[in-house]
Amino acid sequence: MFNIAFIAHDRKKDEMVNFVIAYENVFDGHQLYSTGTTGMRIMEHTQLKIHRYLSGPLGGDQQIGAMVAQNDMDLIIFLRDPLMAQPHEPDISALLRICDVQGIPVATNIATAEILVKALDRGDFAWRELVHKYKPEQL
């Protein structure tokens, strides 16, 4: 079981919902997290249970980023809208930076998301189990 987060900017929420519907069977059985509205929309259209954090602009990106910083997140699907300025752009940049620091796979478009989900379905994320097994104890 892996920890997976869904984040989508407003103009990408429908795309995210359709994507999760298409791969609902892959996501079922994993621990799922999301920013507020995105998670609500996914749950309205699927049978998946999602732990919802705050909306992105209200700190939800940072809450997911805190999980990444603790190495408690295995995959993030973050459908960004590259054509629309976001008021919380510094939070978005910080989340992407901490994913790079911790080596957490993050998809920012549907093409990359599909590749990562197919890898998840094939079992290619087994290396993350080793990360969790040998994770140092928190102070």
Automatic annotation (TrEMBL):
Annotated coiled-coil segments of the chain: none
Keyword NADP in annotation: no
Residues bound to substrate: H9, K13, T35, G36, T37, T38, S55, G56, H88
Keyword Nuclease: no
Active site, renumbered: D61
Enzyme class, first EC level, given as a word: lyase
InterPro entries: Methylgl_synth (IPR004363), Methylglyoxal_synth_AS (IPR018148), MGS-like_dom (IPR011607), MGS-like_dom_sf (IPR036914)
Molecular function via GO: methylglyoxal synthase activity
Domain annotation MGS-like: ranges: 1-139
Catalytic function, reaction form: dihydroxyacetone phosphate = methylglyoxal + phosphate
Keywords assigned: Lyase
The enzyme's E.C. designation: 4.2.3.3
Family (UniProt): Belongs to the methylglyoxal synthase family.
Described function: Catalyzes the formation of methylglyoxal from dihydroxyacetone phosphate.
HAMAP family registered for this protein in UniProt: Methylglyoxal_synth
Protein known as: Methylglyoxal synthase
Gene behind this protein: mgsA
